[in-house]
What does this fold into?
Amino acid sequence: FRFTHAVTRRPAASITRGLRAIDIGTPDLATMQGHHAAYIAALRATGATVVELPPLDAFPDSVFVEDTALCLPQGAIIMRPGAPTRLGEAAEMAPHLRALYTTVAFITGPGTIEGGDILVTGREILVGRSARTDAAGIEELRALVTPWGHTLREVHTPPGVLHFKTDCSLLDAETILSTKRLAASGCFDGYRVIHTADGEEAAANAIRFNDTVLMAGGFPATRDRLTAAGYAVTEIGNSECAKLDGGMSCLSLRF
Ligand code: CIR
It folds into this structure.
C-alpha cells in the first residue's frame, strides 16, 4: 500500500453507455468529472505522481483503468478483460505502462482476467474467479508472477458480485476491509478483517494509498469503524461510478 505512482484516465462522454449489472440510472458526466478530480487530488495529497490519461470515447468503461493491468514491483502485466466491450482497453494501456516500466508482460488468452478481481496483500496475490475472470486467465497470471517470487491463490468472487475487490480492499499488509458475505467464504482466514457495516456493502471497495484510505462517501458507519481502527480516511463522491458498479480501486493503477 506504499506507492509512488497512480495511473488514471479521465471519464469519456460515452460513460453514459458504460456497463452495469442493474440499471439504476445514467451517470452524469459533469458530476463524475468532479468526483474524478477530487479522487486525483486526494491521490496527489498522499505524495503520489498521478498520470492522467485522456478520455477514450471508444471505450465507455475506460475510466476504470484498474481492470486493464496488474502493476507489481517486478513489472506490469496487461490483462485480458472478460467483457468483450472492454478487451481493447488493455492494448490502449500497454504503451503508457511501457513508458513507466522496463518489464511489461501480457495475458494473451484464451483465458480472461480483470484487475478488479486481483488483491495483492503483504504476503500473496488473491485472484477471485468471477464472470470476468476464468481459470485459464488465472493460470496464465500464475505462470507470470511465480517466477517473480509471488504466491497466487485462487479464490471466489461471490455470485452476483462484479469483481472480487467490489467486496474487499487492503487496509495494510495484514488487514482487509471486507463485506461479511465475502469474508464468510474463509478467503481471509489468517488476516485481520474489518467488516463493512450492514447495509454499507458498497463501502468495501476502498484503497489504502500511503497514509490515506480513500473510500466512497455516504457510508458513515463503515467510515467510523476505519477511523476507530486508526486509519486516516478521505471520502470521495462515488454516486456516478456506483451506477456502473465502479468504485475507488477501479479508478487507478497503483505502483
Ligand atoms: C464494468 O462493468 O466493467 C464497469 N462498468 C465497472 C468496472 C469496475 N472495475 C473494478 O471494479 N475494478
Notes: Residues 107 and 141 are 7 Å apart (CA to CA). The chain has a mean pLDDT of 97. The first strand starts at residue 5 and ends at 9.
